[in-house]
Structure to design on (248 residues):
C-alpha cells in the first residue's frame, strides 16, 4: 500500500513529461522554436534620402516584394494565415518567425526552403513556380550581407526615362513585385503579367498605370504594399506605356 502511494505521483509526473515532449516535437520547419532576437542594429533608418548602393541588397526594395507576391499570401504566410508560425509580411516578422541566420544562408530555414530540391518541401509549394534563380540569389546575398534592414532612397538622384527597355527595366520589376500573384493557372484578378503580351494588354487598357499610380477607381498595386513602387520606377513604366509598350 505504501509502495503504491509513493509511485503514483512519480508515474503521473513522468507521464506528463513524456506527453509534453511529444506535443512540442511537431514544428515542421523548426521555425517556432529557436526564435532569433530582432537585430535592431540592422534597422538603419539614417540612410533614408541616400541613394541606393547597387551592391547592397535592401530588404524593403529587393526582398519584401518577392516575399509579398510569392509567400505572404492568404492561406500561406500572411498575418492571418501564418502557416507553420511563419509570417513574411515585414522585416520584423521575417526575423522573428522565418529562422534567418544572419550572414549564414546555408543554416537559414528561409533559404533552405526556397532551394529544397524535393517539391514536397520546397517553398512556394507546387503548383506555384519556384522562385527564379535571380530571386534565390538575391535572398542568398541579403542573408550573407547580414540580413539587415538598410534604408536608401531609390528616387535620390536622376531618373532616366529615356529608351526604357522591356527586358532590362520593366520585366525585372514585374517579376519581383507582381508575378507571384499575376501568373499561373489562376492569376489574381484574372490578369497574367508573366508574358510581354499579358503586360502589354494591361498597359494598353490603362489599368496598369492606374493601378501602379494608386489612382482613384483602380485597385492599388502591388496589393498589400504600404507604399507605391518608387516614383522613378512608376515613371519608367509610364514612359514604356507611352512608347506603345514595346517588346524591346
Ligand atoms: C499579393 C498579390 C498581388 C500582387 C503582389 C500584385 N497584385 Fe495586382 N491584383 C491582385 C488582385 C487580387 C487583383 C484583383 C483585385 C480586385 O479586383 O479587387 C489585382 C488586380 C490588378 C490589376 C487590375 C486593377 C484594376 O483596378 O483594374 C492590375 C492592373 C494589377 N493587379 C497589376 C499589378 C501589378 C503591376 C503589380 C506589381 C507592381 C501587382 N498587380 C501586384 C493581386 C496582386
Amino acid at each position: 500500500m505504501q509502495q503504491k502511494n509513493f509511485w503514483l505521483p512519480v508515474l503521473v509526473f513522468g507521464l506528463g513529461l513524456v506527453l509534453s515532449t511529444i506535443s512540442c516535437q511537431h514544428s515542421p520547419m523548426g521555425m517556432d522554436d529557436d526564435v532569433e532576437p530582432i537585430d535592431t542594429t540592422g534597422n538603419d533608418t539614417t540612410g533614408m534620402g541616400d541613394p541606393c548602393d547597387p551592391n547592397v541588397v535592401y530588404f524593403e526594395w529587393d526582398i519584401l516584394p518577392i516575399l509579398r507576391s510569392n509567400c505572404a499570401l492568404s492561406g500561406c504566410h500572411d498575418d492571418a494565415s501564418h502557416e507553420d508560425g511563419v509570417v513574411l509580411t515585414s522585416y520584423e516578422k521575417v526575423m522573428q518567425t522565418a529562422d534567418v541566420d544572419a550572414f549564414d544562408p546555408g543554416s537559414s530555414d528561409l533559404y533552405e526552403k526556397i532551394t529544397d530540391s524535393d517539391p514536397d518541401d520546397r517553398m512556394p509549394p507546387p503548383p506555384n513556380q519556384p522562385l527564379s534563380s535571380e530571386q534565390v540569389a538575391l535572398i542568398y546575398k541579403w542573408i550573407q550581407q547580414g540580413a539587415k534592414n538598410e534604408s536608401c532612397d531609390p528616387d535620390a538622384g536622376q531618373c532616366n526615362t529615356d529608351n526604357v527597355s522591356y527586358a532590362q527595366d520593366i520585366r525585372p520589376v514585374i517579376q519581383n513585385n507582381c508575378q507571384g500573384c499575376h501568373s499561373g493557372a489562376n492569376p489574381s484578378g484574372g490578369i497574367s503579367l508573366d508574358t510581354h503580351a499579358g503586360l502589354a494588354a494591361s498597359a494598353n487598357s490603362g489599368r496598369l498605370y492606374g493601378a501602379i499610380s494608386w489612382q482613384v477607381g483602380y485597385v492599388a498595386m502591388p496589393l498589400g504594399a504600404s507604399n507605391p513602387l518608387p516614383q522613378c520606377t512608376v515613371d519608367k513604366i509610364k514612359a514604356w506605356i507611352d512608347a506603345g509598350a514595346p517588346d524591346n
About this structure: The chain has a mean pLDDT of 86.
